[in-house]
Amino acid sequence: MGYSEGFVASLAAIVGRLRDEPGVRVRVRVGSDAVCRACSSLSAGGCTRYGMSVVHQDARVADVLGVASGDEMTWDALRARVREAVAPDDLSDLCAGCPWLGYGVCAEGIADLRAGLPLTSGCP
Ligand code: SF4
Description:
It contains five helices and four strands. The radius of gyration is 14 Å and the shape is globular. The site of iron/sulfur cluster (SF4) has 10 residues, from loops.
């Protein structure tokens, strides 16, 4: 479900590392992030596909999780915040307008997280 083979490989590597090293430190980014680095839509000015809408989306999620751009913590700690603050049904409001929302993979990922299941590579 990615944009190119290179993007899929990069995302799979990121997801694999998060799954295998839950204690790895991550930095919150409101705006273009490590996932975007392999995307052909990333330009010096940001995302050419979604523009500021994706930045506003990030800011909404960061607000719900009680984090700010630049915050650093372990992946496990960030995941715990998601587990406590977000339910699968919340995504219809929280992620309203996201073109990936209708596929349902993110809601499935949140449900898996709440059930204590490991991260899969399905969520974009
Ligand atoms: S937010 Fe934009 S640049 Fe980042 S992965 Fe999505 S489409 Fe690509």
